[in-house]
Write a structure and sequence with these properties.
Chain A: InterPro entries: 2Fe-2S-bd_N (IPR042204), 2Fe-2S_ferredoxin-like_sf (IPR036010). Chain A: This is 2Fe-2S iron-sulfur cluster protein. The complex is a heterodimer of chains A (96) and B (416). Chain A has one helix at residues 27-33, and strands at residues 9-14, 17-22, 38-41, 48-50, 62-65, 68-72, 83-85. Chain A is mainly β. The chains are: A mainly beta (96), B alpha/beta (416). Chain A binds chain B through residues 1-2, 4, 24-26, 29, 32-33, 37-38, 42, 47-57, 74-77, and chain B through 44-47, 56, 67, 69-70, 89, 122-123, 132-138, 140-142, 144-145, 147, 149-153, 175-176, 260-261.
Amino acid sequence: MVKNVKQKEIRFNFNGKEIKGHEGQPIAAALFDNGIRAIRYCDVTGELRGIYCGIGHCFECRATVNGISGIRTCLTPIEENMNVASNLTGVQYDEE
Amino acid sequence: MLQVILQVCSMMKSDVVIVGAGPAGLVASIELASKGLQVVVVDEYYRSGGRLLGQLYKDRRKKQVWAGKIIANDLVEKAKSLGVKFLFETAVWKIENKTVFISNEKIKQIHTKTILLATGAIEKALPLPGWQKVGVVTAGAAQTFTNLHNVKIGKNVIFVGIDPLSISVAIEMKHAGVNVLGLFLPAPSMLNQKSNPKEVLESIASASGMATNPIYRFGGKLVHGLYTKLLLKFLKFNLLKINGIPIYIRKAVTEINGRAEVESVNVKNISIDGELIGDGKNLLVDTVCLSGGLLPLIDLSQLASCVIVDIPELGGFVPLHSPYLKTTVEGIYVAGNITGIEGAQVSMAQGKLAAWSILKEFKLVSEKDLLQAIKDVEQARSLSPITFLPNIHRGRQIMNEKWADYKNTIGESFDG
């Protein structure tokens, strides 16, 4: 296995919750690391949606990043104090 | 009014614009820049390397590990040292009259003499009931998150779709400590041709150089002949395993279940001819990786009005191109998976060939150099550890024939 050199810790917000990630990680990978796979609700069916293709083609993982909507979380690296929001706001996650 | 618009649009000039910073685009950028051309590489991702970044496997023939991330980093360093400019998080949305229109915040257009499309491939959809649920990802996404981002995408994982890519990603995930329960076929449907056990067995046998492939040890040359059916009957009762991962060549996933996220799948037995048998069972999983195969990503060649041809042996619709990787539109070239689905080593050799083909236009290399670059592509193909499409050689022949026909029709002699 190729080991990553330990990278700088970055803190950002996802729907009001503070998330820790590492510099250079896309938003979706940092969310995965924190056990979050559901990124938004589908506007049509109300079902949960998350990562599907991981390379920017499917747009399933989109969220509002620093006020700009439709940003693909699989393509966008995290930044300190970045604000990531989706229509999941207010949803309680089951704590494991 | 026009003047105002031009002032707002920030422009850039270059000799060559390369779309795609994967193995083909990176190698091409190095070849072009080392001969003094101004090269701009555009990529939608936030870093270069393309699919190389996720690749990590043992090349059985060369007895060494193929660590794509390291190979990509070396290529990028070299390209940067030669003055290649990179525009990341930037998509190309139009190509017209040698102007490349991009989504970059600062630069909106690049005026260029030549364009190399090295856009790679997209994963084919594999629609199954429940495939929209959270916890269902493509095999490519699974590879990227496992090997590049070092993220475990689930605890109990299965793959649907048995092919060289899904086998390789399953092995990589197991190495990363994920519990991979097995690889299954998708339920037969009008939309996929991946449910016939006989065809699937033959296609995975062609991935002979990859990691430890027991298909050859197990079935030997029997796989490609009359004995396939016998072998498949045998496989109904005996488990085929690759690196300890079960390959269920006689079981298909018919549905993915779960209220919010994936909780289980329904699995049914499948006949040798690809028909579902019996009632089936429920298997508890939290993650499903779908592998529907790869399609050349040709959108930009279509936008640029290149002639497109359908060659199933190459993976489907691809831009018509010469043996020197020139398309039907003057100044536009192609390299890598946009020309047909093959491994990274072939893409890299094609990147060099396309670059030299462009250099020939600039009178910086000779005809003889170009012929050598063609030979290098053929050699890379014959040494490639992974063959995605069993009739790829025939596909390349058909492309050359179609190019010759095209040249005849438009009244030009065959000059490549």
